[in-house]
Structures are given as structure tokens and as C-alpha cells.
What we know:
This protein is an alpha/beta fold. It has 3 domains: 5-104, Gyrase A, domain 2, CATH 3.30.1360.120; 126-205 and 378-427, Up-down Bundle (Four Helix Bundle (Hemerythrin (Met), subunit A)); 214-370, Rossmann fold (3-Layer(aba) Sandwich), CATH 3.40.50.300. The chain has 16 helices and 12 strands. Helix 4 packs antiparallel against helix 5 (136-146) and helix 6 runs antiparallel to helix 15 (405-423). The chain is flat, with a radius of gyration of 29 Å.
Amino acid sequence: MTETIFALASGPGRAGVAVIRLSGTRTGEILDAVAGMPRPKPRLAALRAFKNDRGDVIDQGLALWFEGPASFTGEDCAEFHVHGGAAVIEALAGRLTALGARPAEAGEFTRRAFQNGKMDLTEAEGLADLIDAETEGQREQALSQMTGALRSLYEDWREQLISVLAAIEGEVDFPDEEDVPDTLSDTAGPPLAALSQALAQHLDDGRRGERVRDGFSIALIGEPNAGKSTLLNALARRDAAIVTDIPGTTRDVVEVRLVLGGFPVIIADTAGLREAADQVEVEGVKRALARAESADLRLGVVDVSRETFPDKLLETLRSNDALILNKMDQGQTLHPSDELGMTQFKLCAKSGEGLPALEGWLERLVVERLSRREAPALSRARHRQAVERALEHLNAAQRQLSRAPELAASDVHLAIRALESLTGRIDVEDVLDRVFSQFCIGK
Ligand SMILES: Nc1nc2c(ncn2[C@@H]2O[C@H](COP(=O)(O)OP(=O)(O)OP(=O)(O)O)[C@@H](O)[C@H]2O)c(=O)[nH]1
Ligand SMILES: [K+]
Ligand SMILES: [Mg+2]
């Protein structure tokens, strides 16, 4: 017996068609009361008049019946396709409530699908990501996760670990009179080593999946008046940040979201790096350096009418970053230098000259770093933490194997649990709450 829930599954606001979905034990009888008998054949749309409690027609539309368990949630489900006007939706929602259904919470349909074994937790997350996907790269990654790419990877590891565990426990329970530890090293050692290598490789992917999901982050840094905000606006094609000839114009981090090569990118303009004079400047520089530190790529912007490259800037940049020699329209005293060992671009941010070359390079770089590989990428911090936990236990198990098999067994057991928390095999209520609350209502 489950409560019967309903929600507007299509987007809010005026539309040609609105879809209201229903799931739970009393779905069938509520469908009959609203759409009349006979009940539509499962999965086939039937044109019906939907009536209120006085028998007046609310609207005319399509009714669908999905008999559990062959439904999205695994329970009895129904859909009403009505005209997408506010009054129609409200009247139908009122009728469903009067018949004993209640409005669903965010993610409640998917949570029921998860609880009924229709999908694991990573697939549910993939579904949420697919609904949120705004770029082609995000759509591809979410779809692959929703259709089980991560689940099958993690389930496969889990099954291998269960065999390893069986081997170790067998030795613990029925020790060979002779050299137990040696036998174990031979049997359980190689698969443990191979698995821990696989997990390490999965983690060591430059956080690709998380970047695809949350955005590749680029920080613009440099001295005051180098033209960082001008460059940000040029890249964004709009006046996102204030530009003036007063040094110290930008204080907070100003973010702009772009799509490059089908991937989400967040470009951050920052305060000019300098010996700060007052408290506000000190805080601005602190934030600039923190953003530079956490970014996936730094673009160091320099005014070419300077004599030398600023030390502080060179210190902050890394070898894969790029230097932007800006204000090429002004007297140039600074020149690109091979000694810096960094990609360099000549630019006039104000007129946009040189911008296409920079944009082309950025796009290629983002595509190269984020493109899909054969192996699926973990896409959330939650996955990373769980795989890291599993790997720690695997490494510990390897160390214990020849000394204390029973301790090795308990470590393998903990590694299995970490993988199970990842796929949701073991219910961790607060994890479930967090995952499903991120869904929209109606999914
Ligand atoms: N001639 C010329 N002027 C530029 C160019 N790029 C920026 N400027 C000017 O340089 C001044 C400073 O530009 P901003 O974009 O505000 O510089 P910023 O690096 O953001 O400066 P802060 O926020 O103060 O650190 C403004 O007057 C811009 O118009 C350029 O390529 N050529
Ligand atoms: K400025
Ligand atoms: Mg600025």
C-alpha cells in the first residue's frame, strides 16, 4: 500500500499540452473516477472527458494507464494529457486531491522507481542530470549514466570483490595446515591489485565527469588595468563586468557562463593582483588568488606597454596555462617569450583583434580535456568520495593479506560497502534525501 501521488510532469506555465502524472496504490480507481470506464488498455492512449465530482467536464484529453510493475515507478501509474492552461491544471489537481491523491515532493516518482529496483542511484542521478543538461556534452554524459554506464562499472567491481572476499574467508575458515598467507597472496593478491589499479585510474581523470556536469573553470588574473574585465566582456559578448581606466575597478569575482565545444565553461574575472592598500583590496586579491588556485585553467593578462612580466603573475600561473599580451594597439615593449614555456596570445581586448585565435585555442583545450572516453567518468563529488574510500580499504587489504587474512577480509568487506553506498544498494537515508531533493517536482 503506497500513498498515491500526483504532479505536473510538464513544465509550469501556459502550454499546448500539460501532463499530469499519478503513481501509487489507488491510481486505478482515481483514473476510473476522473476518466470514466472502461479503463484504457495499458500503455495505450485513450481520448476521454475528465470530469469533476458533479460530473461536469473539466477538459477533454488523453488518459494513459500503466499497470505496475511495468511502469516508470514500478507502481500503478497513470497520465492525464490535458490542455496546458492554469485553470485546467488547477481543476484537475483539485479533483485528484479530493479523490485522495496528494501532490508529490521533488524527485518522489524517481525515488519510488529507485526503491522498486527500476534503477540504481547512479542511474537516478543520471536522470536528474539529463533533465538539467544544458549542453551537448552534459546531455551525452547524463544519458550514458542514466542508462547504466556507472552502475555496470561499479557492480562489476563489487562482484569481483565478492569473489575475492570468498577466497579470503575460505582460507580464514578452513586454513590449509601449510602456508596460508602464501596461498592467499597467490589467489587474492592479483585480483586485489588489479582492482585497486582500476579504481585509481577511475579517480585519476582530471575530474573530467565533474567538469562536464558542473563546468570547466577558467580564471582571468593579472595586475590592475591589464584589461581582464574587458577580456571577460569580449568573451561573453556582453557587459558582464565594469570596465574603467581606474586601477582596482574589479573587486569581487565576476562569473560568466559560456558553452565551448558543447561543454559548460565558467569564466571568472578577478581583482587585479597588487600590494593592497585597504581592507577591501586585500579581500579582493585574496579571492582572486583563491579562484586562480581552484580554477582548471588560468589566463594571465598583461599590458604589453609594461617593461617586464609581473612576478606575482608568473608565480601564480602553471605550465599548461596561457599568457595574454593585451593592448597590442598601444606601444608594445613586452614581447612573447619562449623562456616562459607557456602558450601566449597577442590581443587587443578592446577591439577584439586576436580574440578568435584565443577562443579557438580555449575551445580545443576544453574539448580535449572533457571529451568522452571509453570508460565512463564519475560525475559527482559523492562518487569520488565513495571510490576513494573503497580504494583506501583495498590498499589496506593488500597490505594485510599476507599478515592477517581476517583483517584483509574486513577491509575488502568495507570496500564492498563503499561501492554499495555508491549504487544505493545499501540505503543511506541522508544520501537518498540529498540526491532526490535535487530533482524537480514531477520527476
Ligand atoms: N587601448 C586599449 N585599452 C584597453 C584594452 N583592453 C582594456 N583596455 C582599457 O584598459 C582599462 C582597464 O581595463 P579593465 O578591463 O577595467 O582592466 P582590469 O584588468 O579589469 O582592471 P581592474 O579590474 O582594475 O584590475 C580600460 O580603460 C580599458 O578600456 C586594449 O586592448 N587596448
Ligand atoms: K580597471
Ligand atoms: Mg576588472
